[in-house]
Amino acid sequence: MTVTDQVSGDRAAHSDLADPAFWRLPRPERLAAFARLRELEAPVLFTPPPGTARTSGKPFYALVRHADVMTASRTPKVFASAPGATTPEPAGWAKALFGNSMVNMDGAEHAALRRIISRRFTPRLLAATEENIGRLAGRLVDEMIAERPGDFMPSAASRLPLEVICDLMGIPAEHRPRIAAQIDHASEQVGVERRGRLRIPGRGTASLAMMQLVMARLARERRRRPQDDLVSALVRADVDGEGLSSRELGAFFSLLLVAGVETTRNAIAHGVSLLDRHPEQRELLRSGFDRYIGGAVEEIVRHSTPIIQFRRTVVSEFELGGRTFLPGEKVALLYASANRDEAVFTRPDLFDITRSPNPHLGYGGGGPHHCLGAHLARLEMTALFRELLTRRTVIRRTGEPGLVDSNFDNRVGSLPLSMGPTVT
User: Fold this and answer.
1) How far apart are CA 197 and CA 192, in angstroms?
2) Residue 306 near residue 28, CB atoms below 8 Å
3) I want to staple 64 with a disulfide (CB 3.0 to 4.6 A). Which of 48, 118, 175, 337 is the partner?
4) % of the chain surpassing 90 pLDDT
C-alpha cells in the first residue's frame, strides 16, 4: 500500500517523502506531514517518482513513531546498516577507494572498529579535551565581539566543532584552512540553497579525496613519530594488535566531519535561534546556567534534530508497527518525526528547556550505532552557550536562519546576527 492509498486529497501531495519536492517544503509543513503519518495504522511505503531515483533511492517504508524508530535501531540483526545508511547508498567504487564508513557497517566488522576507536577515548584524553573546549569557546566569542561578523555560521558555530576535532586528532595548524575549505566545497557539491538543489549525502568526492590524502600523510607521520593525539593512538596497534589502517583512519575522519562538525554546528545555530525566539527560555537559562544547561542542550537537539533520517535494509522477516517487513525492503528511521511523537512528548512542538524526561532520538535510537560523539557535542554546546549568554555584550540574531533543503540533515546555511547593547 502506498501513501496515496492511505492519505487522500491535497494532503497526499504534501506527504510524499520520496519526492525531492517534499524536502523543499517549509519545515512546519514537513513536520505536519510527519504528524499525519504517525496517525496511520502502519508504516507507509514511498516510491520515488520517475526520474528521481538518483536522489530518492529505492522504495522505502517510513518509520515515523518513536517506538518504531527505537526498536529498529536496537534490532540491528533485522534492520541492517549495510549496504548503506544514507540515500542514495554509497557506490561500490567509493567504498573501495575511500573505505567503508562505520555508519554502513554491521555485526563483528562494526563492533571491531568501534572497539578500537572507543578504547582511544581515554579519561585523560576526554579531560584534556573538555578543558580545551572551554578555552576555544572563550577565544572564539572574544573574536566575534571584536570582529562583529554579520553571519554566525562562519564564526563560532562552524569554527568551534572544527577546531575541537582538529585538536583532538592532532591535525597541524597548516592543514586546517585547507580542511575547512574542503568541507565548504563538499557542502556546495551536495547542493546549497542558492543552487536550488537538494542536499544529497555522498557527493563531493573530490573534496573527500583531498581530506583522505591529508589523513593518510598524517597517519604515516604519526607511525614514525607518535604524538599525544588521537591519530597517533588510532594508528598504533594496542595490546590486542588492533589499529586503524590509513584508509580506515580517513573514513573515520570523514565521518567525524559530519558527526562531529556538521551536526554540532547545526545544533548550535538552531539553539541560538530558538533561544532568541523564546526569550523567556533564554532568560531562564541565564538565571541559572549550570542548573538548566543540561536540559537546554537536550531540548535543542530534540527540537532541531540535526540528522533527519538514516536508512536500514531488512535482513529477515519482522513485524513492527502493524506491518510485517520482508528481507530486502528498505526503511527510513525518521528521527525528525520520532522527536515530535505525541505519544512520548507532551506538547512536542513547544520548546521547553525544563522538559523532563526527554528521551529524544537526536543521537540515534540506541543500539550499536548510537552516536559516539554525543558527549563531545554536549560539551561543545555547553561551553559555547556559556560564553554567549554570560558575556556583557548581547548577541542577537537579526533574521531567520537560512535553512538548506535536505532529506538528510537540518542544516543551517546562514544566521544573521548583531552585537547588542552592553548589559549593565
Assistant:
1) 6
2) no
3) 337
4) 52
Question: Which of 271, 336, 361 has its CA nearest to residue 31?
Answer: 336
Cell numbers representing residue 36 in the block? 499525519
CA–CA dist 150, 155 (Å, integer): 9
d(CA 52, CA 50): 6
Amino acid at 253: F
Task: Report the alpha-carbon distance of residue 266 to residue 362 in Å, rounded.
Answer: 12
| Beta-strand pair 309-314/79-80 | antiparallel
CB burial of residue 242 (10 Å; 0-12, 13-18, 19+)? middle
Reference 359, options 341, 373, 375; nearest CA is: 341
Look up the pTM and report it. Answer: 0.89
- Could you identify the residue written with the cell 559555547? 384
Q: Count of CB atoms within 10 A of residue 339's CB?
A: 24
Q: Which residues pair with 45 in a beta bridge?
A: 2, 61
Strands (E), 204-362: 309-314, 318-320, 323-325, 330-334
E strands within 25-133? 44-46, 60-63, 79-80
CA–CA separation, 294 and 378 (whole Å): 8
Other residues' Cβ atoms within 10 Å of the Cβ of residue 52: 15
Q: Distance (Å, rounded) from C-alpha 419 to C-alpha 193?
A: 26
pLDDT tens profile 213-252: 777 788 888 888 988 888 888 887 654 567 777 777 777 8
Residue 250's SS3 state is helix
